[in-house]
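Customer escalation, tier 2.

The customer says the design service returned an amino acid string that "doesn't look like it belongs to this structure." They asked us to rerun it and document both sides in this ticket. The original structure tokens are below, unchanged.
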């Protein structure tokens, strides 16, 4: 049963009346109207939106309450046809709920990608159904939060991630460094970023080149070095250095890496820290 149903004959009549008014407003111009054509069109458009909203409200139980429409809009079981109508709601919170719904059609997300409200565009940028072309558009949004969500989206194109890798906002660059679609060349650029959080994400990315991990193995921040120590692309030579790191967690990370040499693992099995010793000994028992 669809979420939206006409509840009474009165509701059907309201729809009929509204449709007639929509046609009249859309097609008729008052010859006595002295306003400009642009003003008349703007007035008619506002009237159209008002009547469309009235039509929508009479088809939902409690539909005159934005909170009810919002709950319907965020429900993943709401039919796509109903989400399409709610995507045109006058309430931004309802449109934002549609934008974040995993059941919303890409065509409706395309419409919402141009929404005037930032939270709505943010929902589109986060949605895994959003088309790459719309993510390209949102990658140039004036709001960093929207661009950051585009940088995190798994459907964002490498060419857009390359642009976002040079964004002025550190959180946006972190998203680009985290995305599996970011090209190794852009990860190389991000490996030298001034933000520790960006370098941290590069160190964790499974597509980071071994040469960049070698560079990050000497990073001043232990969290970056820890992620290098656990990255499957890290070279054995770098793990030898990290197995002797002054930070306990870095050494623990090295003891977990499948590329570590047996000699370095044996060294860690005698580490001063108990967690490192136990991890190294457990790994040794499975490798022998």
């Amino acid at each position: 049963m669809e979420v939206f149903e006409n509840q009474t004959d009165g509701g059907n009549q309201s729809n009929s009346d509204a449709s007639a008014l929509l046609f009249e407003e859309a097609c008729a111009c008052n010859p006595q109207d002295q306003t400009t054509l642009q003003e008349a069109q703007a007035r008619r458009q506002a009237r159209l939106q008002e009547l469309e909203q009235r039509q929508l409200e009479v088809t939902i139980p409690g539909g005159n309450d934005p909170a009810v429409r919002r709950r319907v809009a965020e429900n993943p079981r709401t039919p796509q046809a109903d989400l399409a109508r709610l995507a045109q709601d006058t309430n931004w919170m309802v449109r934002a709920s549609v934008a974040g719904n995993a059941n919303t059609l890409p065509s409706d997300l395309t419409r919402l990608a141009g929404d005037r409200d930032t939270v709505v565009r943010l929902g589109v940028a986060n949605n895994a159904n959003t088309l790459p072309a719309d993510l390209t558009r949102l990658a140039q949004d004036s709001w960093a939060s929207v661009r950051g969500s585009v940088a995190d989206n798994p459907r964002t194109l490498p060419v857009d991630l390359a642009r976002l890798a040079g964004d002025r906002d550190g959180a946006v660059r972190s998203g680009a460094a985290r995305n599996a679609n970011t090209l190794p060349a852009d990860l190389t650029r991000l490996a030298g970023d001034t933000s520790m959080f960006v370098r941290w994400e590069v160190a964790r990315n499974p597509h980071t080149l071994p040469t960049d991990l070698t560079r990050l193995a000497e990073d001043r921040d232990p969290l970056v070095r820890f992620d290098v120590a656990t990255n499957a692309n890290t070279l054995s030579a770098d793990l030898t250095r990290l197995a002797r790191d002054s930070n306990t967690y870095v050494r623990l990370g090295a003891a977990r890496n499948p590329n570590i040499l047996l000699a370095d693992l044996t060294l860690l099995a005698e580490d001063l820290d108990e967690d490192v010793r136990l991890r190294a000994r457990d790994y040794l028992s499975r490798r022998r």
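Tier 2 assessment: The sequence is consistent with the input. The mean pLDDT is 87. The first helix runs from residue 9 to 27. Sent an explanation to the customer and offered a walkthrough call.
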